[in-house]
Specification:
Chain lengths: ~350, ~130
């Protein structure tokens, strides 16, 4: 089972690129590939979101640009690119321009540790999960920065809300994931997937969601809150805060916010699939896990997960800020800790 | 206990809302794709005015009753046997001003003016909206 990295290295050697250049070249190729993947994923998600939610609201959604409206995201991106880039006169210029880059950074870095297939991971850290969570925390700083630098009451309120929400949900999220780590015995993403191989009666795969239903529920709710998805989309609540922290942003900078939002939705779905639904393992235990098919299974599972997120987005209404925070601290955190205790107790027995 | 009951209720209501959107997903869509598809209008729907100049007797009632001064009639007198009758030489409708109240059609003694269902009136100039019948 060769990883893609060594494959690339041997390719360089056969072409005749000196060893000194091989490692930086590999890094550049991998990061460009990830960037291209993010762009593709975001475009696909944009189209899917708009058509899917439209269908649930008895509408048709965009269907004019290209076949079935498939080129709509391209048109949107072009529009955002040629739009004027406005910086408010009273804004903090430096922070204002740093924030969109900073918010895109974690969305990009989190793809480093996601195993897309057997051995198809940019860098399989042995603390991969911790890395993903830590990087996800940067989003919070970027959002506060954007809210503060815009010098606008809506954006600062949105930024503060998002900070409160992210801190409230980061803690139960980590606790809910610890159960999985205890079962797998490793923080390495690849290792966690490997720990889910095998199956009950040769049919149902041995996914961690069957061992950790409570943990998955807590993780899922926290992921929704982290993403600012609909029941918890207070940071950008349209009816009260106009658009929250991104009020003053336009053109390409706004596009970066948008990009990171969708890219995060995909990344968190991917993490959920990796931790709870067996990653790139086939969905039925008796199907052999071929190297070629593994990314296909992964994308399939992530796709279903993302569709479920969109389904939720079309169905649920927004809650109040105090409800969000009390749910995070008073319900999810105790439940997550209880789940951890339960897992530990059952493992001892 | 109350907290647990609340959690169960929350999950139940989420499932209920999910099922509603799921049902709507398969329903017939209400969107009318306008240039290709059009809505069938009710008969009393009015969108613009037109005049049958052969029926018009140039009485000028419509001109007087119109609140937006849309109508302008040029009159000439024509010999019809013994009598001299008023006939419209031209009948101008400035649709850019018309608010489609339908008063003219209501007052017209010969039924020359009638409301039409032509609703695609957008144009580039105000002059293009002036309809002259003669």
């Amino acid at each position: 089972m060769p990883g893609l990295g060594p494959l690339l290295k041997s390719l360089f050697r056969s072409i005749g690129i000196p060893t000194l250049w091989a490692e930086p070249l590999r890094a550049i190729i991998v990061s460009v590939a990830i960037l291209a993947l993010i762009m593709l994923v975001v475009m696909a998600l944009l189209w899917l979101l708009r058509r899917f939610i439209a269908y649930m609201q008895s509408r048709l959604g965009p269907n004019r640009v290209g076949p079935e409206g498939l080129l709509q995201p391209v048109a949107d991106a072009t529009k955002l690119l040629i739009k004027e880039d406005v910086t408010p006169a009273a804004a903090d210029k430096v922070m204002f321009s740093v924030a969109p880059v900073l918010i895109f950074l974690p969305a990009f870095l989190i793809y480093l540790v996601i195993p897309f297939g057997k051995g198809m991971v940019a860098k399989d850290f042995n603390i991969g999960l911790v890395f993903a969570l830590a990087v996800g925390g940067i989003t919070c700083i970027a959002i506060i920065l954007a809210g503060w630098a815009s010098n606008n009451k809506y954006s600062i309120l949105g930024g503060m809300r998002s900070a409160a929400q992210l801190i409230a949900y980061e803690v139960p999220m980590v606790f809910s994931l610890l159960g999985v780590v205890m079962l797998a015995g490793t923080f390495r993403m690849g290792g966690i997937v490997e720990a889910q191989s095998g199956g009950f009666w040769g049919v149902i795969p041995r996914w961690f969601v069957f061992y950790q239903p409570l943990g998955f529920l807590v993780f899922f709710i926290c992921a929704l809150a982290e993403l600012g998805h609909l029941p918890f989309d207070l940071p950008e609540g349209e009816s009260e805060l106009v658009a929250g922290y991104s009020v003053e942003y336009s053109g390409m900078r706004f596009a970066l916010f948008y990009l990171s939002e969708f890219s995060n939705a995909f990344a968190l779905s991917a993490i959920a699939v990796t931790l709870f639904f067996g990653g790139w393992k086939p969905p039925l235990a008796f199907i052999p896990d071929w190297y070629i098919l593994s990314p296909f299974w992964f994308i399939l599972k992530v796709g279903i997960m993302v569709l479920f997120l969109m389904w939720l987005r079309a169905s649920i209404v927004r809650v109040r800020i105090d409800q969000v925070l009390s749910l995070g601290w008073k319900v999810l955190l105790p439940v997550a800790v209880f789940n951890l205790l339960l897992t530990g107790g059952l493992m001892l027995v | 206990m109350r907290v647990i009951w609340g959690m169960i209720l929350t999950l139940w209501s989420v499932l209920k809302s999910l099922s509603i959107t799921f049902l709507y997903f398969w329903r017939k869509k209400v969107t009318v794709q306008y240039p290709e598809e059009r809505i069938e209008h009710p008969l009393r729907f009015r969108a613009s005015v037109d005049v049958d100049i052969d029926k018009c007797i140039a009485c000028g009632i419509c001109q007087r009753v119109c609140p937006s001064k849309v109508i302008e009639i040029e009159v000439w007198r024509v010999k019809e046997g013994e009598k001299e009758v008023r006939k419209p030489r031209s009948f101008t409708l400035n649709l850019g001003r018309c608010m489609v109240c339908g008063l003219c059609a209501e007052y017209c003694p010969t039924g020359a003016i009638r409301m039409t269902q032509e609703y695609e009136l957008a144009d580039y100039t105000r002059e293009a909206l002036v309809r002259r019948r003669s």
